[in-house]
Amino acid sequence: MIEFDIESFKSWVIKKGKHYCSKLFRFSPYLRKERFSQNVIFTTSCKYHLDYPDNLDINKLFGLSYGYHHRNSARFGWHYNAGNIQLFAYCYINGKRKESFICSLKIGTQYKLTLITTSKKYCFVVTSKETLRQVQVPHPRIPNYGYRLNPYFGGNQVAPQEMEILIHENED
Fold this sequence. Notes:
Layout: E1 10-14, E2 25-31, E3 35-42, E4 59-65, E5 73-81, E6 84-93, E7 96-105, E8 110-117, E9 121-127, E10 132-138, E11 145-149, E12 163-169
Antiparallel strand pairs: 1-12, 2-11, 3-8, 3-12, 4-5, 4-11, 5-6, 6-7, 8-9, 9-10
């Protein structure tokens, strides 16, 4: 994994009391490609506490949507638990939500997150100096056009404080 200088990362901020960051999504004709990756650093501002069961809600980091994102989409999801970020594969396939735990991430550490699409599955890959994890989620087909999704906090709860995630978009 190539580590990038912190100055090359963009700051994505979700304000206290909000779900969306100011850059919700980039709507542009998106021709499907097989690989989409970003280097990510969760800052200490991503530590939070919500009461049960809201503490189990999965926040969204980034991904792709093909039409309405509660119908067909694939995203990396996360929540904070016991000092770490818990990372998930978070998909909607024909309107049915599928979640799969990938691994735990350390706050302040750089990770490369890659979403790979094939004709039969989404593959979520996490790489760092010491970590390589992969989760696969089968799907029947992926449309050719869609749009990218950016950070979002919640299920039903809004961000309890301002949260910052640093993201470096890769060219692959």
